[in-house]
Amino acid sequence: MPKDCLLLNGNGKPVSYFPLSTLDWKTAIKLIFTRNVVIVKNHEDWVVRSPSVEVEVPSIIMLKRFHKFQNYVKFSRSNVYLRDMYKCQYCLDIFDVNQLTLDHVIPRSKGGQTEWQNIVTC
């Protein structure tokens, strides 16, 4: 099981919905020992042992503090390529990154801005 523990934000909701915020069991135990999280639920039949400590592996943990995330995507060349799926918006063929460029729909000379709505891959 590569992803064994659900991580919730301080308000009880998942940190991210897509992909769902999950951690491996080792990272979850590290967060518990650093006291950054609260255990919501443990796996019922999974215990990790060392010579001196026995720890139940958590299945759901929650951050102690609410962590506010940015709800926007940074404008960049690579993010525009990802948005357009490396496809030329004129001929609809798929190209490699080094073959693509960005084009303004409304030219800058006509007042077009460099923003998400006015840039396409070509």
Question: What does this entry look like structurally?
Answer:
- By secondary structure, the protein is α+β, with helices and mostly antiparallel strands.
- The protein is 13% helix and 29% strand.
- It has helices at residues 25-33, 77-83, and strands at 5-8, 22-23, 37-49, 54-63, 102-104, 119-121.
- Strand 3 and strand 4 form a beta hairpin.
- The relative contact order is 0.15.
- The model has no long low-confidence stretch (mean pLDDT 86).
Helix percent reads: 10-25%
Q: What gap, in angstroms, lies between the N and C termini?
A: 42 Å
* Secondary-structure class: alpha+beta
**Quaternary organisation:** single chain
Strand order of the largest sheet: 2-1-4-3
Order of helices and strands: EEHEEHEE
Q: List low-confidence stretches.
A: none
- The coarse overall form would be elongated
Mean pLDDT: 86
